[in-house]
């Protein structure tokens, strides 16, 4: 018996949302430079992130990395970056998906973002832990 998907998006929809999100992230004044310092091969990075979401949304076992460790090791990923990341991600979701799917995926992304942001440092000048609800 196969397990039903957690959120019924298609792999094509995941690919489109991820591509849309990174087009925005690359152009963003806060996130753009952080990604530019680490991602040397965008095709490979986006393919990995698609696998991450296939794992989280469709319960396919195709990603076994550790984003929390990778973010901490990067050294310049800050907990206050997550509010920016999530707002760009929500824009990509709204643009590409029907409202109910966008909303369901957004709730999961915010929950994951909350977990991933714990323990990371704040940027200089940031005064509070961002509200990721
Ligand atoms: C809910 C929010 C986020 C999710 C789900 C997420 C997910 C991921 C995943 C799955 C990876 C790949 C880890 C691996 O190599 O296995 C990754 C890498 C990375 N993420 Fe995030 N991330 C999030 C937020 C952020 C934020 C806020 C930043 C800040 C700029 C960021 C910057 C990076 C960087 C720099 C890498 C490493 C890329 C590389 O070395 O190729 N992420 N992220």
From TrEMBL:
Q: Cite the Gene3D superfamilies for this sequence.
A: Globins
A molecular function (GO) held by this record is: heme binding
Instruction: Check the record and name the CDD domains matching this protein.
Output: TrHb3_P
UniProt: heme binding residues: 71
Q: What are the record keywords, sorted?
A: Heme, Iron, Metal-binding, Transport
Q: Name one Pfam family in it.
A: Bac_globin
Superkingdom per UniProt = Bacteria
Q: Which SUPFAM superfamilies match?
A: Globin-like
Name of the protein in its database record: Hemoglobin
* Species this chain originates from: Sulfitobacter brevis
Its lineage opens with: Bacteria, Pseudomonadati, Pseudomonadota, Alphaproteobacteria, Rhodobacterales
């Amino acid at each position: 018996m196969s397990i039903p998907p957690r959120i019924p998006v298609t792999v094509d929809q995941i690919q489109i949302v991820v591509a849309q999100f990174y087009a925005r992230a690359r152009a963003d004044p806060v996130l753009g430079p952080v990604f530019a310092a680490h991602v040397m091969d965008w095709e490979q990075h986006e393919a990995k992130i698609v696998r991450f979401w296939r794992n989280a949304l469709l319960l396919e076992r195709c990603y076994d990395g550790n984003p929390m460790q990778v973010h901490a090791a990067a050294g310049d990923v800050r907990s206050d970056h997550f509010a920016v990341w999530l707002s760009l991600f929500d824009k990509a979701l709204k643009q590409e998906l029907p409202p109910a799917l966008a909303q369901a995926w957004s709730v999961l992304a915010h929950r994951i973002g909350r977990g991933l942001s714990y323990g990371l440092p704040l940027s200089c000048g940031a005064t509070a832990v961002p509200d990721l609800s």
